[in-house]
Amino acid sequence: MRRAPPATRRFALKLRGGVTREACPTIVTGPGEETQVDYGDGPMVRHPETGKYRRTRLFAMTLGHSRKAVWLLCFKSSSQKWCELHEEAFARLGGTTKTIVLDNLKEGVLEPDMYDPELNPLYRDMLAHYGVVALPARVRHPDRKGKVESSVGFAQGIPLKGMRFESLEEAQAYLDRWTERWADTRIHGTTKRQVAAAFAEERPALQALPVERFKYYGYGTRTVHLDGCVEVDAAYYGAPPGWLGREVTVQWNASLVRLLDPSTGELLREHRKKPRGWRTVHPSDRPAKTPATTLQLLARARRAGASVGALCEEIHKRREEGGVRQVLGIAKARDRVPPLRHRRSLLGRLLRRDVLLDHGA
To answer: Can you give the CATH number for the domain in which 255 is found?
Structure first.
């Protein structure tokens, strides 16, 4: 839909009697109570892969009481990058506040809602690790986080306007020097105090940082297959009975895979991460008896030879029903090998054919 010309919009405003402007009072917070975060456009930086200048993203975290700000640059954002920028800013500040106010971007909020917004699970768990509560602003109400909005504009206008850098490290070092020499030493227009002095008073009120940083994980939804398992990185993990055909929330990292109830967040099953092609089931979910068809297949493998039988037994022991198809393939491959007497007769026929060929028959 095309936008109306300016003259038409002005005429429509006259007919409606103008727009009533809402009051935007300054939100006063105590030391260590609130932080505001947001993204903005950063300077042009030469990308290391393409060699071309590319617009960066400017991450800003501003303390609500002292107006102390941390500005960080990156090329692209993701759920994990958004969390990592928070952790880096927490480390630079030396602590965290009780609450953090953010916009409704997807890295932080999946479903905006006035009363019960749905947070990105990775972001929610990262903040819980630091003891921080997220307060997403209402949709189309950026004034709730006006302090960080002003902070983003301040960094864009004075130090970064029209600047180009050859690397992200060079740009970040330049921004850090400007923050230390100019941004922290200025007299803030609203508080009428030096930012560094106000931050020195607020810093003791910040919450202490945990000993370790947050351990990141992958997450998503999976449908439970007819074999009772979900697939993660080409490995298969058993779900509890009663979940066939239903979706579960899955979290995984380098060592663990967790299956969660998507409606309540309750932990259903936790498994150790397995290599590609492996299958694992919780001991309580395993059948009480091995299926008769599997027993027949293992007996068939044992008849093929002691080594073949031992190999198939080990595959079934490690992968259980997930390894039945491999056992079947080994058994069929063994059946295709002819007996020893047949191999001897075949060798004799080949030798006789070669002799006749040599004599020109």
So the answer is: 2.40.50
